[in-house]
Design the sequence.
């Protein structure tokens, strides 16, 4: 391989590594944003037409996410003391798209201790935009032992390894 | 240094960084695999002669791991709702071998909450294979305050920093 | 761009990626060090004039940290069984300085289970030294729902994105 070709290959490989690090940073911005009431900053992690499907009746868009974060339930939670914890993801980058899978937890204060009020599996679809990586879809299912929750994990692992 | 030498150095350094990212991905594939009952996929994270030493009477090989994951105890756990959570590891890559140290937790649903039914420290020995990084040994000890559990942490830190 | 310029750019970008990975490793050395009673190794993660501000009356220096880790309270904790867990950080590298934000948890054994005896948000200021990255300041506030704890998250996110 010529030096020219080796440099081009290094540039492509380095970009893929930087992409992974940027996505790790993006996913770990979510917690401090929602736990501090920075609702707009949290919603801005998604593309404008992005979706957060957490398994309830609503598939949230960035706009409805802001409303949800500003609502009583979320505000009570963050004023009690909370951590929306994203575990380290497994990430696969494919050009300008990426997929990530990781557990997430909602940790809430109760007296002198904290407890896990929610534990879930997540499958993110991400896209590269002119201003960096953004979430296209976050698909989240609570860890209730159901076939549905197991299916999210299986789908995420297959998509990743098939890439 | 000549351009040729600088490019060669970049190639070696980038490979080490990619190795770390790949190992982070490998270790974080374990949870979604075992929690969804994908027993073969979980066992395939090890080399064929790999070992999972979790401190009991059995040092598991990939074959006996599959049997364990398909057994009643594990199946009850994952149908109740569980997360085999691997914390972010500290990784040291040395050519075609690597070591990692991190906590791990088994999170289990109980009614409307989740609790930590196991907390442990892990010391992984990893090897590069033709199909990517694999686990040669996972040495895992429960966090019971014993000298043995502390020794795993000390050994992992020393091995890492000595590299 | 000439090959010379492209190689120089690759060198700078790769160093920033390696910096992130090194900082992830540094922050995840803390837990196994303090949980195994390796007090000196834990304190050595800071610069000599570094500070750990955990919100109490004392702003710890590396010297006073060692004394604290060797004290009765910490020793009882680690002999009961504990994990000082650092969640995956969001990191921003700016030349020879860096900032990181992440949750941290003190997980403690109680009978057959483990519980979260502390949950906090952290904002680290890091510096590159001749022997690698070190902590200049770790600013830590418990997740008690207070404006103060929210302010740490907001400040950390703003500083990061402003870089």
Sequence:
């Amino acid at each position: 391989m010529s030096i020219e070709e080796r440099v081009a290959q290094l540039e492509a490989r380095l970009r893929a590594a930087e992409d992974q690090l940027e996505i790790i940073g993006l996913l770990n911005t979510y917690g401090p944003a929602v736990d501090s009431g920075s609702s707009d900053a949290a919603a801005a992690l998604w593309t404008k037409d992005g979706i957060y499907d957490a398994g309830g009746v609503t598939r949230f868009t960035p706009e409805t996410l802001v409303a949800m974060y500003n609502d009583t339930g979320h505000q009570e939670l963050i004023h009690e003391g909370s951590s929306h914890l994203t575990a380290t993801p497994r990430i696969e980058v494919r050009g300008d798209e990426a997929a990530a899978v990781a557990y997430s937890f909602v940790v809430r204060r109760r007296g002198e201790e904290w407890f896990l009020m929610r534990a879930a599996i997540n499958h993110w679809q991400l896209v590269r935009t002119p201003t960096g990586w953004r979430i296209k879809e976050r698909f989240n299912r609570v860890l209730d032992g159901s076939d549905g929750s197991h299916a999210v994990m299986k789908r995420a692992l297959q998509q990743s390894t098939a890439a």
